[in-house]
Write a structure and sequence with these properties.
The structure holds two protein chains of two kinds. Chain A is an alpha+beta fold. Chain A folds into two domains: about 110 residues, Ubiquitin-like (UB roll), CATH 3.10.20.30; about 130 residues, Alpha-helical ferredoxin (Fumarate Reductase Iron-sulfur Protein, Chain B, domain 2, Orthogonal Bundle), CATH 1.10.1060. The radius of gyration of chain A is 21 Å and the shape is elongated. In chain B, about 40% of the residues lie in helices and about 15% in strands. By secondary structure, chain B is of the alpha/beta class. The chains are: A alpha+beta, B alpha/beta. At the A-B interface, helix 1, helix 2 and helix 3 of A face helix 3, helix 5, helix 6, helix 12 and helix 13 of B.
């Protein structure tokens, strides 16, 4: 079945499982259409691998519209590839040229161990949220929603922070594999809203403690996380986290 | 018929739920701590149920196939969530939401359930705001609303085009809070492959650990299936790649009956198919129809750039056919109208299977308002358009970006091209008022059940239903069952029923892996999807459905003799997992066609070509089909049809009109 006329060379990380040693393998995909998404090119490649009796390449993906945060892929040295503000599943082959060679690797971080090939384990993020990334309000305890006016600017700001999809690109982009931007996005969302105030300082302290426990690196403010974030989460979130964290530590000690 | 007791409480519709809540048996806190509940799926229904039940004190285990519960497909819902708050003072009420939903569903939903849904809708918004969900707000600090199809009030709450994401993250964080407290245990990358029943009651599941390939046994006093819809039976749909029917299908084969399996929602505004490499379709939110006008050229085969086609040569066919609701007719109506225009030769774009969605009119309208606010009395059309674009950008920016990314075209400059695509399944496991299936102790919530949307779901009602079921319904109704289970001790998973169930799954996996045929899982899935879309899609007829049944049976036979699955069970093997799902789709597809064939009327999203009005509208047959088609599995290709009669005591059943 013909799709298009581009020829793409790939160097893809193959690793049998968490314990195995991995390496880059070369593949060529012919008849790539510029309208194909990057992952659809992988679908085509995997089809041909299965047809040849080889093992397909494992990669994470689900919604394929840029919102679930499942897809990852470190493409030519950049999380989610060369374009800004999108996830890998939204990257289309029209962003590449016929004959290009593309290197594809998994997220690399101690806290994100490889499961297989390009698939990593990001459950550390869930544990960070479980440590404090919520407002403690049981079902049925809420007052009428409009009893709590929130100025539009704060609500919009909180929304921008809340738009994080938890994909882990920030960690993959960071030379220290820090999860600071991910943690800061949740901390800021709730710090900017009145609902988040009662637990504001305990939240930041416990989330940062869990982040450290998971083995993420320290933040040295290089800003690669925000530059590579598919949702363009701002570095100001980290500034807010730092302020709140200082205050939290001060409160703990006083 | 005795099998289908809907258990709708007696009394006037307005008091059924409140009376039920005050009289349903309770479980005391110390007993709750000994009762275990398994929840399959972590979307809006599953996560909200998990959080709420754990808060009550039950011991909860949650399973999802994704790598994190936050990735369930609810996250992709764009437009909004309905609630009868009447914050806009535009005449909304619980009754109106109830009425709109019943009418929107083309009188094929159950009154009692739908009224309850409308009643609890308000509390959902309150709860979400309390969790810190950042809904859109007005400058005065209060919540903002917009319109959706099938209604004439503004009752939809939203967070840009990411409402599902924000609601799911709210429910997810509430659930993770319980994980942190140890009351919920989370099993990500686990897929339920069988239901375990003991003495007719649901007592557990067999789940596959998708990382190790191991089959694992879990016991629960009750099992909740919150596993979403099965639109992926069509191969191409707006569903996430992993969305599947397996959990409810395995339960179906263990005795849980299916309701209205053929009721499928085809969403009118999706990005058209661009080639045979396509793996999924992308929705453009219905909210766009607030400000977008749908049209085709008046002349067949008009190839001009849409910007060059003057106003008087455009056919705004929804506004023409349905003046009262215009572009905001319900989804089924809008989809069929698009198909009708394309079939008649008025379609646009390379495939001619698309229509235009144009924002210029409303960009100008908004632009004039902005110009007026800025005191620009003599603004040129160009300046007005520029200001209007900014307003549209703020409202729908992420959707416009998504469109541009996928198509390579800029929707700010020219009309979008859209076409209907499979989006949601109204059908699902049959449940009673308690959300319990026909297997005692087995519940089904959210899109996975059949209950609230009849033959067509209104926009922004899926999020409402998922959260209503999880936050506000199941915490009450589960007490009716569990209060009688307090003496049941946790059952050892070495019980013969668990062993037998695991063996059943093991046999399927072994069989699949041993076929070692010549065709990929993907190729079978595509072929099934084509049969379903061509013959059980937007328009259905007797001949096509009969052919489809034969074709699916043949395809299934071929699958079980010629599918090729690489690798082994005990490893991370997505191809094997997919093979299991497609095997189930191959059985479900047949039942959907049987159901569609049986229902010799048109209603909502189910359009039988033999049953239409002179103007081409869906023609119901209330005398013969005012029932839920309920299918009881009896063996391969064999189902017994049961019927739940629908009684309309509060709404006068009428031919639906949006004119």
């Amino acid at each position: 079945m013909s799709h298009g006329s581009m020829k793409i060379n790939l160097k893809v990380w193959r690793q049998k499982n968490a314990q195995a040693k991995g390496n880059l393998e070369n593949y060529t995909v012919n008849e790539v259409s510029p309208d194909m998404s990057f992952l659809e090119m992988f679908d085509v490649l995997n089809e041909s691998l299965v047809n040849k009796g080889d093992e397909p390449i494992a990669f994470d993906h689900d919604c394929r519209e840029g919102i679930c945060g499942t897809c990852s892929l470190y493409i030519n040295g950049r999380p989610h590839g060369p374009l800004e503000g999108i996830t890998t599943c939204q990257l289309h082959m029209r962003s590449f040229n016929d004959g290009d060679t593309i290197t594809v690797e998994p997220w690399r971080a101690k806290a994100f161990p490889v499961v297989k090939d390009l698939v990593v384990d990001r459950s550390a993020f869930d544990r960070i949220i479980a440590a404090g990334g919520y407002v403690s309000v049981n079902t049925g305890n809420a007052q009428d929603a409009n009893c709590l006016p929130i100025n539009k600017e704060d609500a919009d700001d909180a929304f921008m922070s809340a738009s994080c999809i938890g994909c882990g690109a920030c960690v993959a982009a960071c030379k220290n594999a820090s999860a600071m931007l991910f943690v800061a996005a949740k901390v800021s969302q709730l710090a900017k809203l009145p609902q988040g105030q009662p637990e504001r300082y305990t939240r930041v302290a416990s989330m940062v403690a869990q982040m450290d426990k998971e083995g993420f690196g320290a933040c040295t403010n290089t800003g690669a996380c925000s530059a590579e974030c598919p949702k363009e989460i701002s570095l100001t979130n980290i500034a807010l986290l730092n302020r709140d964290y200082m205050r939290a530590k001060f409160l703990e000690n006083s | 018929m005795s099998k289908l007791e809907s258990k709708i409480p007696e009394g006037p519709i307005e008091t059924k739920w409140s009376k039920y809540k005050s009289s349903v048996p309770l479980v005391n806190p110390s007993n709750k701590r000994n009762l275990e509940i398994l929840i399959v799926g972590s979307g809006l229904a599953g996560a909200s149920a998990a959080a709420s039940l754990a808060e009550l004190g039950y011991k909860v285990k949650v399973f999802c196939f994704q790598d994190s519960p936050r990735r369930a497909h609810s996250i992709a819902a764009q437009g909004g969530i309905n609630a009868a708050k009447n914050y806009q003072n535009d005449g909304d009420s619980t009754y109106r939401l109830f009425y709109d939903t019943i009418k929107g569903g083309d009188y094929r939903a159950r009154e009692g359930n739908v009224h309850r849904l409308a009643e609890v809708s308000s509390s959902i918004i309150d709860q979400c705001v309390a969790q810190g969900v950042p809904f859109a707000r007005e400058y005065g600090g209060l919540l903002s609303n917009r319109s959706f199809g099938g209604t004439q009030v503004q009752r939809t709450f939203y967070a840009a085009g990411q409402t599902g994401q924000q609601l799911l993250l709210g429910a997810y964080s509430a659930m993770e809070r319980q994980v942190g407290m140890g009351t919920v245990q989370m099993y990500a990358r686990h897929e339920m492959l069988d239901l375990v029943t003991i003495d007719g009651k649901a007592r557990g599941i067999i789940a596959k650990n998708l990382v190790t390939g191991e089959l694992e046994r879990y016991f629960g006093h009750a099992v909740l299936l919150c596993s979403g819809g099965y639109g992926n039976v069509f191969y191409l749909s707006t569903n996430a790649m992993g969305a599947n029917v397996t959990a409810i299908w395995r339960a179906h084969k263990q005795g849980a009956v299916m309701g209205n399996p053929c009721f499928t929602q085809i969403h009118p505004t999706c990005i058209p198919v661009s080639g045979d490499h396509q793996s999924k379709l992308t929705l453009m939110s219905e909210s766009l129809r607030n400000d977008g006008r749908i049209w085709v050229p008046k002349k067949q085969g008009d190839d001009r750039n849409p910007n060059d086609i003057p106003e008087d040569e455009r056919d705004y066919y929804l506004e023409r056919r349905y003046p009262a609701f215009g572009n905001l007719v319900p989804r089924d109506v809008a989809s069929r109208a698009a198909k009708e225009r394309c079939d008649a030769g008025f379609g646009v774009g390379p495939s001619k299977m698309a229509v235009y969605l144009d924002f210029k009119f409303n960009m100008m309208r908004y632009g004039r308002v902005e110009a007026s606010k800025l005191g620009l009395a003599n603004a040129s059309d160009e300046e007005i358009l520029k200001l209007g674009k900014e307003v549209i950008k703020e409202k729908y920016g992420n959707l416009f970006d998504m469109y541009k990314q996928i198509t390579g075209d800029n929707p700010y400059e020219a009309s979008m091209r859209i076409y209907p695509a499979v989006h949601y399944t109204m059908g699902g496991l049959w449940v009673d008022y308690d959300l319990m299936t026909t297997v005692p102790g087995l519940y089904c919530l959210g899109e996975a059940n059949f209950s609230d949307h009849g033959a067509n779901r209104l926009g922004a009602s899926a999020l409402m239903q998922g959260l209503a079921d999880g936050y506000y319904v199941i915490p009450y109704t589960i007490g009716a069952y569990l209060s009688k289970e307090i003496a049941t001790k946790a059952i050892d998973t070495n019980h013969p029923a668990f062993v037998e169930s695991e063996q059943r799954v093991q046999n399927i996996l072994d069989t699949l892996l041993n076929i070692k045929g010549s065709k990929t899982v993907e190729s079978f899935h595509k072929r099934l999807g084509k049969i379903m879309w061509d013959k059980c899609g937007m328009a259905r007829n007797e001949k096509g459905l009969k052919e489809a049944i034969v074709e699916i049976q043949a395809l299934r036979k071929e699958y079980w003799s010629d599918v090729r699955i690489p690798g082994v069970q005990h490893e991370f093997n997505p191809e094997l997992d997919r093979a299991f799902r497609v095997a189930d789709f191959l059985e479900l597809g047949e039942l959907m066609c049987i159901d569609a064939l049986n229902r010799h009327e048109s209603c909502g999203g189910h359009f039988r070509e033999e049953s239409q009005t002179e103007e081409g509208e869906a023609l119901r047959d209330d005398e013969n089909y005012a029932y839920v088609s309920v299918w009881d599995f009896k063996g391969e290709s064999q189902w017994e049809l049961l019927k739940e009669e629908l009684k309309f005591e509060n709404i006068k059943i009428a031919q639906r009109s949006y004119k």
